[in-house]
Amino acid sequence: MNALEALEARVTRELASIAHPHQPWLTPRTGPDGQPALDVLIVGAGQSGSATAFGLLRSKVDNILAIDAAPIAGEGPWNTYARMHTLRNPKDYTGPDLDVPSLTCRAWYEARFGEAAWDALDMLPKGLWAEYLLWVRRVTNVPVQNDTRLLRIAPVEGSDLLAAEVESGGQGRMLYARKIVLATGQEGVGRWTIPSTLAGLPADRCVNSSQPFDFDRVRGKAVVVIGAGASAFDNAATALEAGAAEVHLLCRRLEPQVVQPYRWLTFRGFLRHLSDLDDTWRWRFMRHILGLREGFPQPTYDRCAMHANFHLHTGSSAVASRFDRTEDRIELDTTQGPLHADFVISATGIDVDFGARPELHAFAHNIATWGDRYVPPADEQDARLAAFPYLADDYAFSERTPGATPWLRNVHLFAIGSTMSFGASGSSINALTTAIPKLVSGITRGLFRDDVEQHWASLRAYDVPQAIITPRQPG
Questions:
Q1: For a designed S-S bond to 40, which of 1, 28, 46, 64 qualifies (C-beta 3.0 to 4.6 A apart)?
Q2: Where are the strands (E) in 327-382, listed by range?
Q3: Residue pair 346/194 in contact by the 8 Å Cβ criterion
């Protein structure tokens, strides 16, 4: 038995030793197709979706399924549009393990490469993180169907079930579930953006940083990156390493954001209890944090700065653009003058737009936002943050008009869109160990409450004796 096999045996023993209580407790439901309905359908099988499934399994909610539109190993950003070399968080952050020592990344890494290798490690390579996530998913027996995309969600008439239309292999089918968790990552409540000032540029020359892109195309070419967050620098560095002739990064701020607020908030009090504060404090904290945006670490900057052909333009933004077909190049008008480029990469984040998500489109009009529920002081107003969904304490959507779509209480958002209500949670490694238990508790609370009459009847009918009393015979 090698070290990894020994670790997996240890995982099995540890999970068995903390399995209490292991009694089944959910009342089965049958879908309109006559087949058993799921208790929970999880959309997204990356780090958040898989960890949610693991948390539910530990609570004996085992009639579940996680689906992911990507093929196996393509879940999340790690092997697709994440263009950094390593994770940005310290190696000792835990998350998908849910506080089980044998499931930590450290335990897995040491089993693979040895304790000395872990001690020498600075930050974990992103590809190894993707491998680790798949390992956790496998050893915790999370049920997953890859290559399966959610198309829409609708209530089942006359039932408390939800209907999820999914597509797999070009074929559509319905899945029925009592609850749905949307663990859909960065784009869970909207769409990746390209600034309107870049509208009209050829789609193969102007891309968002989340799109697949063949960086071999930039060899010997000029590239402009719009944005100055960590992903912007990652894309600039990738272009430079691919042999770009020059890379210009446009930063609107006079000074790039180098403070990482997510480092500050990584403590139990904030991660566990921000959502317990009133709206005034939640808004105040998250407005400050999200206003800073996410800073980039030193190695990310150094990847770019080591190249003499990297040019950082602070206090600069694109105000207009056009494509010169004669010269076969992009012409940008910026606040600091003109720039010419062969390619533009927009690393400008996501706009919250429920209607842009196919699975949310049918009920997007009735998802309550922070703007619907809270009016901040005049000096704290922020239209971008007001568009975020205002979630219930179990991560479920709230209704803008109560009673119009009551089934929304069974659709839980565990993605970047939950940030305003819960702080770092659905898309953040640092929050998983505190956010997952809160989410799972909310889901099991709802499942229990919905079955309370059956539980009451079960209790009253319970007559299993623990002992047999034998009458003493006379004499």
A1: 64
A2: 329-334, 337-341, 343-346, 350-352
A3: yes
Is the CB of residue 372 less than 8 Å from the CB of residue 385? no
Query: Could you tell me if 400 and 423 are in contact, meaning their C-beta atoms sit under 8 angstroms apart?
Result: no
Q: b/e per residue, 108-125, with b = 16+ CB within 10 A?
A: bbbbbeeeeebeebebbe
- Tens-digit pLDDT profile for the chain (475 aa)? 899 999 999 999 999 999 999 999 999 999 999 999 999 999 999 999 999 999 999 999 999 999 999 999 999 999 999 999 999 989 999 999 999 999 999 999 999 999 999 999 999 999 999 999 999 999 999 999 999 999 999 999 999 999 999 999 999 999 999 999 999 998 889 999 899 999 999 999 999 999 999 999 999 999 999 999 999 999 999 999 999 999 999 999 998 888 888 889 999 999 999 999 999 999 999 999 998 877 788 999 999 999 999 999 999 999 999 999 999 999 999 999 999 999 999 999 889 999 999 999 999 999 999 999 999 999 999 999 999 999 999 999 999 999 999 999 999 999 999 999 999 887 789 999 999 999 999 999 999 999 999 999 999 999 999 999 998 887 6
pTM of the model: 0.95
**Cα dist. 116→110, 112, 113 in Å?**
8, 11, 8
Rounded to 10 deg, the angle between the 126-139 and 105-113 helix axes is: 110
Distance, CA of 28 to CA of 36 (rounded, Å):
7
CA–CA distance, 129 with 351 (Å, rounded to integer): 27
Under 8 Å between Cβ of 220 and 304: no
CB under 8 A, 24+ apart: contacts of 449-457:
450/160, 450/178, 451/26, 451/27, 454/27, 455/25
